[in-house]
Specification:
9 helices, transmembrane helix, single chain, transmembrane, 4-stranded mixed sheet, membrane
Length: about 260
């Protein structure tokens, strides 16, 4: 999400921590599919390595502009949300490996379709100035403000929101839900509820913040074509650039360019 850059220092933590989470998720996903056998470790290492490359791009290269917005929603859905929601499918369905692979493909297509439809819907809520009108200095989109003169974007979360409140409530709710599941549901019911909840959360994120970012990135790309000039970048990017200049790896990767 665009607002990720509001806390620049956390991006460095994500660079070194998130790939381990992605590797664990994909390792569990593969381990629950007997047809992968000894390839489970390979899947986990490959997923963790690709995740590190993505977060290295985010931390060291990205301008948090249109190109970032076009890529990030799909990447996050593929490397984290979908495998988390689909990992327990074999335990739920008890089908042969080939059928599980087909079911994996169906749910993956469903997630990507949800993301695409949501992007189209959110793009309609981010109107562009009419071609015949002189563009004003700013555009106000849901959660985002676009400064046409400075060629920058600014995240505008609702006033009074605190990210840690949602995290605390979510953690508390998950603990209580797990205790209720253990006390009242059989093993099959627990798996069914877990799969349903994870798919629900994943589809909600695809339809909500990820779809909104993708739709707004499409609009930003249209703006860049309509109003030639420098690509749009996030207003907080200078803070991230200072961190990049402190890292030898950052200086090396910056030579590859930015979006």
């Amino acid at each position: 999400m665009w607002s990720a850059l509001q806390r620049v220092e956390q991006i460095r933590v994500a660079l070194w921590g998130a790939p381990w989470l992605v590797a664990a998720v994909w390792g569990c996903w593969a381990a629950l599919r007997p047809e992968y056998g000894l390839a489970v470790t390979f899947v986990a290492v490959l997923a963790g390595g690709l995740a590190w490359l993505w977060f290295a791009y985010v931390f060291f290269v990205s301008r948090f502009g249109a190109a970032h917005g076009l890529c990030a929603p799909g990447v996050l859905a593929l490397i984290l949300l979908w495998p988390l929601s689909q990992a327990l499918a074999p335990a739920l369905l008890a089908l042969p490996g080939g059928y599980i692979a087909s079911f994996d493909g169906v749910t993956l297509a469903l997630h990507l379709l949800c993301l695409g439809v949501a992007a189209a819907a959110h793009a309609r809520r981010a109107p562009l100035p009419a071609v015949s009108d002189a563009p004003g200095p700013r555009l106000h989109w849901p959660g985002l403000e676009v400064d046409l003169r400075r060629r920058s974007i600014v995240s505008t979360p609702p006033p009074g929101t605190r990210w840690w409140v949602g995290a605390l409530l979510g953690g508390l709710a998950s603990v209580l839900l797990f205790a209720w599941m253990k006390a009242t549901l059989a093993a099959s019911g627990q798996v069914l509820l877990a799969v349903s909840l994870m798919h629900g959360v994943s589809l909600y994120l695809c339809a909500g913040p990820l779809g909104r970012q993708l739709g707004q990135a499409l609009r930003l790309r249209q703006l860049e074509k309509r109003l030639p000039g420098e690509p749009f970048r996030h207003d907080k990017l200078p803070e991230l650039l200072r961190l990049r200049r402190q890292s030898w790896l950052g200086r090396l990767l910056r030579q590859l360019g930015a979006d």
